[in-house]
Amino acid sequence: MTTTRPSASGEAAEIDTTPEAGRQEVSDIYAAKGFTGDLLERAVETITAYRDTWPGTMMDEELHLQPVQNSDIVRSAVVITIATLVGHLIPLLPFVWLPRTPALVLAIVLSALVLFGVGCTQPSRSSATGAPAG
Questions:
Q1: Looking at the structure, do residues 54 and 90 belong to the same domain, yes or no?
Q2: Among 30, 37, 115, 133, which is most buried by a count of CB atoms within 10 Å?
Q3: For the chain, how many structural domains are there in total?
Q4: What is the pLDDT of residues 41-94, one digit of tens each?
């Protein structure tokens, strides 16, 4: 099964081929937000009057997609890579200097301490509900 990712160019193509369907989608979106009558018509006319911003509005309002900056992607990739390397090295380092059995014990202790430390640094409340975390 192949899925396609929605894009602004896809929305623009949809607008070019079926502009009335696009206008209806914008109208439905803003009607669901409580716009009615003349205000709804003016909002739809204003949004659909600008071919440059209309696809972006559709991406934002209909699909809830936001543009992502390439610098954010690269920064996230670097942070995740470094965190993964550090996380993997913590239990492996004892095996570099110690024999197998003491290294295994130290790896388990180090891993438990590091996980406990990371857990202690997390916020004490869940950000979604405000309830005490785990």
A1: no
A2: 30
A3: 2
A4: 998 898 888 887 788 888 787 777 777 777 888 889 999 999 999 999 999 999
